[in-house]
Specification:
The chain has 254 residues and is of the alpha/beta class. 36% of the residues lie in helices and 25% in strands. The strands form 4 sheets. It has a 7-stranded parallel beta sheet, sandwiched between helices. A 3-stranded antiparallel beta sheet has the order 1-3-2. The longest helix is centred in the N-terminal third of the chain and has 15 residues.
């Protein structure tokens, strides 16, 4: 059997996952006629490009459909794209957003292990509580039903006392000129605290919020390291991000 070129293999993988939705490494070895190590390298490259999502022992297609009732389909694709940035040993922050809840569901679904998670969100805590290999830290604070989150000075101080490798955040408005913005000032404050205590900031921008303005600025654009969007950005915006050194992951079929 002739050895397929890497690009050919990866195209076959994409087409296979598009129809089968998920696959194990062993299945893909048989499909391509290559070793498991070669399959893993191809899957890693596709995941880095945001075209698939790695799972324990295999991979799954980037899908708009969350698994089961109660999962937020609005943020599901963004969570899938963001999940491959989480590595073993990471201490991460998840804000109080639908994106954070969807990313917590991805952590659970993909069985990501050896990570620490700091969050003010009770919905995130509900997803991750009791999972093996996940150290969960929930901030104290005053409960806000509208956010399903803990807020106030106790929450702020809890975030300030934890150093994060990565902060995963969403926003309610995003433009290149103003950066990310939020409608609620307390939510914006907690996001800002998390940003200041993180080595890397990953911002998820939903297509419905791209190009819109909310009331409260969260941070300057230069504070962001990664921007994830479920649709391709306008070319001028993408060029600006590249100039600023901000890495972009955009769903190619949005």
């Amino acid at each position: 059997m002739l050895t397929r070129h890497r690009n050919q293999r990866q195209q076959i993988l994409l087409e296979y996952l598009a129809t089968q939705k998920s696959a194990r490494i062993q299945d893909l070895e048989q499909l391509l006629g290559v070793t498991g190590e070669t399959v893993r390298r191809d899957l890693h490259a596709l995941a880095q490009a945001g075209l698939i999502v790695r799972t324990y022992g295999g991979a799954q297609a980037v899908s708009a459909s969350p698994p089961g009732p109660g999962k937020s389909d609005r943020y599901w694709i963004l969570a899938q794209l963001a999940s491959h940035l989480i590595q073993p040993g990471d201490a991460i922050g998840l804000d109080a957003s639908g994106f954070a809840v969807a990313l917590a569901a991805q952590i659970k679904l993909q069985e990501l292990r050896d990570i620490s998670v700091l969050t003010p969100s009770l919905a995130v805590a509900h997803e991750l509580g009791g999972l093996p290999g996940v150290q969960l830290v929930v901030t104290g604070g005053t409960y806000r039903e509208s956010l399903d989150s803990l807020t106030g000075l106790l929450a702020e101080r809890a975030i300030e006392t934890h150093r994060l490798q990565k902060a995963f955040l969403a926003c309610q408005g995003f433009t290149i000129s103003e950066g990310p913005t939020e409608a609620d000032d307390q939510a914006a404050t907690l996001k800002g605290r998390m940003i200041r205590n993180a080595n890397q900031v990953i911002l998820a921008v939903h297509s419905e919020d791209y190009g819109k303005h909310a009331l409260v600025p969260i941070c300057p654009l230069t504070a962001i390291n990664w921007l994830i969007c479920d649709v391709p950005l306008q070319s001028r915006d993408a060029e600006t991000l590249q100039t600023l050194g901000i890495k972009l992951i955009a769903h190619p079929f949005g």
